[in-house]
Amino acid sequence: MKRSRANRRKAAPLQVKLPRIRINLRWLVLPPAAIATLVIAFIGVQAALNMPVHKLELEGVFQRVTPLQIEAAVAEVLDRGFLAVELRRIRQQVESLDWVDSAEVARRWPDTLAIRIVEQQAAARWGEASLLNVRGELFSNAARFSLPELPVLSGPPGSERDVAERYLLLRGRLAAANLDLAGLAMDERGAWSIALVGGQEIRLGKQDVTERLERFFTAVLPAMASEFNRVSYVDLRYTNGFAVAWLEPIEISSANSSEVLGSG
After folding, report:
1. I want to staple 163 with a disulfide (CB 3.0 to 4.6 A). Which of 8, 22, 155, 250 is the partner?
2. Rounded to whole angstroms, how far apart are CA atoms 136 and 128?
3. Which residue in 47, 117, 58 sits closest to 82, CA to CA?
4. Which one, of 131, 160, 163, lies nearest residue 147 by Cα?
5. Alpha-carbon distance 3 to 96, whole Å?
6. Residues 6+ positions from 34 with CB-CB distance below 8 Å
7. Residues 105-149: pLDDT tens digits?
8. Where are the chain's structural domains?
9. Domain 55-119: which topology?
């Protein structure tokens, strides 16, 4: 069957003429005076944004760190302008101070640098001059504060975290028993000992330390509650028992006789 002439016209592709777009390049080329104006304006804005830092805003509770210490720590990096100062470097400078645990640094328009610090929380003394924080980390090698109220912890190099963790677990139970810790030590062989503020020493040895501590709290203290202030030391380095040494002999009397128990 032959197609009609009308059908053939419908099958033919349509041709659409697109409008011509003419671009006048003269409008895209700015005159030198306009370019100079833009450059000067850009430099002016940049200079205004990068003016020197004139103010320091310090936030935090300042007990061991002084504002003068922080100012001295960041002084060398403040002369680079408001935008050019390196916030990360300033934070590192501040956090390098002995008693600073963490720091946050921010810019405040137009010329202020804000520094917020959190001081370290000392949990114990380590050796003669160092301090441990509540995470068991050494944070001072030349403490300016003696802090005699804190217990003294000691141990071989590298044992700081282990000793601190043992102390953090121990201090709550001692406080519940109305006892104050004076010191906790682990010697080179790994043996543990506790010194109490009352003068008593608790010898735990290096094996089954957790079980021996439990025996101290559940057996020794209940049995000796009324006489514990007269104890010199308690030796828990036994499988199922303990030994007690007294500060002075204890006289035990009965209806027919009396005897004196010596130390040990």
Report:
1. 155
2. 16
3. 47
4. 131
5. 92
6. none
7. 998 888 888 999 999 998 899 987 788 888 888 887 655 667 888
8. 55-119, 122-261
9. Ubiquitin-like (UB roll) (3.10.20)
One-letter-per-residue 3-state SS of the chain: CCCCHHHHHHHCCCCCCCCCCCCCHHHCCCCHHHHHHHHHHHHHHHHHHCCCCCEEEEECCCCCCCHHHHHHHHHHHHHHCCCCCCHHHHHHHHHCCCCEEEEEEEEECCCEEEEEEEECCEEEEECCCEEEECCCCEEECCCCCCCCCCCEEECCCCCHHHHHHHHHHHHHHHHHCCCCEEEEEECCCCCEEEEECCCCEEEEECCCHHHHHHHHHHHHHHHHCCCHHHEEEEECCCCCCCEEEECCCEEEECCCCEEEECCC
Amino acid at 53: V
> Could you report the average pLDDT of every consecutive run of 10 residues in the chain (264 residues)?
51 57 54 55 51 86 92 82 84 92 91 92 86 85 74 92 91 93 95 96 95 95 91 93 85 43 37
CATH superfamily, with its number, for domain 122-261: Cell division protein FtsQ/DivIB (3.40.50.11690)
Cα–Cα distance, 185 to 168 (Å, whole number):
13
